[in-house]
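re: ur msg from earlier - yeah i can do the adenosine-5'-triphosphate complex, just paste it... oh wait u already did. ok heres what im feeding in:
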Amino acid sequence: MRVSRLMLVTQRAVPAEAEIASHQLLLRGGYIKRISGGIYAYMPLMWLVLNKITRIVQNEINKAGGLQTLLPQLQPAELWKKSGRWSAYTAGEGIMFNLKDRQGRLLGLGPTHEEIITKIVGETIFSYKQLPINLYQIQTKFRDEIRPRFGLMRSREFIMKDGYSFHSNEECLKSTYQNMNEAYKQIFARSGVQAVAVDADSGAIGGAASQEFMVTAESGEDLILTSTDNKYSANQEKAISNATDPLPLDAGEPRIIDTPNQKSIEELCSEQLLESSQIIKVLALIALIDNGQKQPLLISIRGDQELNEVKLINALSNHIGRGVISVNQITEDQLQSEGLKVWPFGSIGPDFEDSHLMAAKHWNKKFIRFCDFTAAELKCFICGSNQLDKHKSHVNWTLLKGLQITVDLRKAKAGDSCVHDPNQILKEKRGIEVGHIFQLGRKYSQALEASFTNENGIQEAFWMGCYGIGISRLAQAAVEQNHDEAGICWPISIAPFEVIVVIANTKDIDQKSLGEKLYKELQAKNIEVLLDDRPERAGVKFKDADLIGIPWRLVVGRDATAGKVELVKRATRETKLLEIKEAMQELLQEIFASRT
Ligand code: ATP
Ligand code: MG
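and the outut:
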């Protein structure tokens, strides 16, 4: 391809809308074009990159027994109602775009395809003899993200590879899950990115294993915690650790203390000369349940710990056996609109009575009370007294008589000691989630009544796994991990072209004819080659070549008359002035070696 025919328009200035390097570089290099918030066009160079990633994914998944298919993006609401996900995905903060067709039937635009695939397999596969199967597709997904940002990292329309496996038993599911794990490692390694596998949250289903693949990068939205011996790695949403030991309180009798205007843990600590680990903090929250109910919660956690919202949602969901749509702090405005009197925020204790909910118009009238292990284990502590400007000192759980459900609700953090070995300490890194594999179990097959006949002639719901890769996110994550101040340094396996031949001065007949000749020779050898034949200044062309990040550059310049060209490796800037033959030999050798 000739750069003069490529529709290449690069940009020197950093686009104001882009916060992170990869987003800026893809915009500046003309790879993507923003159409609207979270909606991008993939320009021809980008499409080449996406196709390269697609081929690597297809190759590895096919080798592991995957069958490629293509499923409809328009999905009837009935299927999502059957699986119980319609309201969670469309109401409130739900991310499914949805619409009505001309007959008034409700449809959703596919954010994921568990429902569709379960219906298809349920109607196609009848016997254990036809199992296991592993289907996948590569397709545009739609998600009305609450905060689309960072270009292709979190967009509202993006390309995903999603795969689903079906099994007659759990062991078979586990074995395919393991194969997918291996295939994913190969895919990321072949795509030239460094990705780590971490334990991930598997939602409210509980028990089932789930792993995310993270491309490590400072701009990553996820926090990963890894033990010093690298034996444990988890997304913070899921991570477990040992909390530090609390500092015991000095001996003393239970009493009420005056704490004027001391509402936060920090204020209490500085005014009362306490350590935060001696205090129990109580959070009053309101949960929206998938059946529309609003459930008040009281959460007790040690004062030096933070609440992990994902753990809370899972605990609540397991407790009530329903999906939880959101959890938010209760505000004075909300109390008012419920017709409730003002609560003593900042002084609420774990034993704050249910009677405070009696007059509620819409909320359930009993708190669900959860207590984090760190709080449950405290023998003697300070907590709110349920009256403004007063706290209880030197109390214990027997005195409070509070009925609590004890669970792990705290955020693990860097510096904590590890559960698998208390001598190991957690350290943190940031990551971009590029893939997610998941043992779904039978949640969808049971809900959608998808079953097969087992060896004993009995109908049984399928065991399922699902496996996703964000193809477009992965392309941008590769840039985030591989760039410098001048531009992108594509890993060669996913670069739009392997080499760019730059004719420094197109008015120079020798340069021009040599450049054209080398271009044709490379093409004849099946090298993916770009020729910069534009009548621009050499400096402009070099800057563009650096920006768009083609791994190899062959410069045909002043030395062309003397039979020499310059070979430049983009990533390292290593430059060699070589005889033409030598340069071509070295280039071909490097490129062929990188293809295996
Ligand atoms: P996230 O936690 O980042 O929102 P997710 O866990 O909801 O992602 P999955 O449902 O696991 O995403 O989707 C599979 C893969 O699709 C993810 O691992 C990610 O690489 C990609 N992906 C998800 N949402 C987006 C998005 N809005 N834009 C681009 N890629 C996405
Ligand atoms: Mg995920």
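cool cool. The longest strand covers residues 426-441. ping me if u need the other ligands too
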